[in-house]
Design brief:
By secondary structure, the protein is an all-alpha fold. Helix content is 69%, strand content 0%. It has four helices and no strands. Helix 1 runs antiparallel to helix 2 and helix 2 packs antiparallel against helix 3. The chain starts with 6 loop residues before the first helix and ends with a helix.
């Protein structure tokens, strides 16, 4: 769904995944990506920060940090 541009619908699925297992880091990352695409910057920032707490050495860290820095 996310790859098809259906970010709102994808976000719903990621909400569900997080509700089932809040330790599933990839769900936080993917929900943050969908929130960012929907223009929900503050919500995306919160999810990206949560993800980076879980996966501090993430290969996506640079991309995420640029977003957090306002890029």
């Amino acid at each position: 769904l996310q790859q098809l541009g259906e970010h709102d619908q994808a976000r719903g699925w990621f909400d569900h995944a997080i509700a089932l297992d809040a330790n599933r880091a990839v769900a936080w990352l993917n929900r943050a990506d969908s929130l960012a695409a929907l223009g929900r910057r503050d919500d995306a920032i919160a999810d990206y920060r949560r993800y980076l707490e879980m996966v501090p050495d993430s290969p996506a860290r640079r991309r995420i940090q640029e977003f957090l820095d306002g890029g």
